[in-house]
Design brief:
Residues 93-115 are annotated as: Disordered. The protein is α+β, with helices and mostly antiparallel strands and 115 residues long. It has a domain at 10-17 and 34-93. The protein has helices spanning 24-29, 68-92, 98-104; strands spanning 10-15, 37-48, 51-61. A three-stranded antiparallel sheet has the order 1-2-3. The longest helix has 25 residues, at 68-92. It is elongated.
Length: 115
């Protein structure tokens, strides 16, 4: 009998801009063009019963000559597409058995061991 509570998958992703200009090696690898800037925080939690909560906060500036209203509309459209792709990917991921995960990390199952 398994007395462990159901393990819900959860995750946090933070994206921040990085300035590569201080490293000559990295500057050579960087593509030319206008550089956008974006900060994004995502929190994903499996709620049970097949439900998933995805919270997203983003602040971005595409840079260049793109008008702000156009950039805002494009951001919303990109996020809407990302949601569909993410949900398909997340649903295709196998669930980990909590017992197997604890064993892999070297944790004891709580029982006594005879050696």
């Amino acid at each position: 009998m398994n007395d462990l509570p159901e393990q819900r998958r959860t995750g946090l992703m933070i994206s921040i801009p990085v300035d590569l200009s201080s490293s000559d090696n990295m500057v050579e690898l960087e593509e030319n063009g206008v550089k956008a800037r974006r900060v994004q925080v995502e929190r994903i939690e499996e709620l049970g019963g097949g439900l998933l909560e995805w919270r997203l906060v983003t602040c971005e500036d595409p840079g260049g000559m793109i008008p702000r209203p156009c950039a805002t509309r494009m951001t919303r459209e990109r996020i809407a597409k990302d949601v569909a792709f993410f949900l398909l990917w997340f649903g295709s991921q196998p669930r980990e058995n909590p017992t197997n995960e604890a064993t892999r990390r070297g944790e004891s199952s709580g029982g006594s061991e005879n050696t």
